[in-house]
Structures are given as C-alpha cells and as structure tokens.
Amino acid sequence: METKNIMIVGVGGQGSLLASRLLGRLLLTRGYDVKVSEVHGMSQRGGSVVTYVRFGDKVYSPIVDKGEADFIVSFERLEAARYTEDLKKGGKIVTSTQRINPMPVIMGAAQYPDGLIEKMRAAGIDVDAIDALSLAEQAGSAKAVNIVLMGRLSRWFDFSEQEWLTAIEQTVPAKFLELNKTAFNLGREA
Description:
190 residues, alpha/beta, 6 strands, six-stranded mixed sheet, globular
C-alpha cells in the first residue's frame, strides 16, 4: 500500500495531539507502519499546531510534504484555509466551522476573512465542514471537538465503527470514555 498522509491542524489546546495518537493507534492495530510527528508551534499561546500521521506498508519519514496530504483535519476554518497548499489533488479537508480569532484579529491589526469554506470549495477543494463545536457541546464538553472530527473522518475510511471505538477506549481516560464515544458517533452521523 502506498503511504497515506493526514495532517491535523488547529489551535493550541484543542486536542490535536490526542486525535493524532488515537489515529496512530487505530492504524497500528490494522497492521500499518505508522509515523506520527507532533509539531507544536505556539500551542501554549493559542497559536497554530500541526500534527502529521503517515501510514502504509513502510513509512520512512514522519513529515508530510506540501501537496501530499490525503486528508487535512482542521479544528478551525482559518487553519483549514492556511494549509490548503499541503493538500494533494483529490484530497479532502474535514473541518469544523468554528471560528477562533488569531492574535492579529484580537489586537485589531487584521480582520478575520469571510467566506473561507465557500472560497475553498470555489477553488475546487473537497471540503466536508461540520459544526463540531455544537456537536461536542451536545456530547457534554466543548473539549470533545477533536473526537467529533475523528468521527467525521471515520466516514472516509473503510475501518469499522468498532475499530474506531476500540481505539478511543485505548486512548481516552476511562472517566471521559462515554462522552468521547458520544462525540465520535455525533461526528460520524452528522
């Protein structure tokens, strides 16, 4: 199997590292060679955070080159737009419609761009956008956006729902397990 590439992008504190570990665990149980690279950025200050998950028969490098991502999973729509150059032709962006203002917008030095999802679609990018924040809140915690997005991503893989749920059980602390299973299912069915 040729190597497949997934980028998980967001803002510090949104749970992208947990999402990448969950995905890595799932892929390992399927027998793939998996490389996960966590590029933190300014995670403590709400800055951009990127993680790479690569899998296949044999993976030599953990980094996804520009134009090579099969999937970009984004926790915030501006982050999705920021990384479109990394998406390969025919790739897919799975994104939350959530808006988190970056520091230049907060300070009044810039404006948050309008119509980002529509602009990406108009440029021919396959975008699957959902209100992951509302679904996470429905599951019981705004912090479950990451698992809602993993549920949404699961629709584009031929792994069973049970395989995903087992990976969640092996990755998420027991006291948050039911909440995260609910979040996963809400994202999958949205």
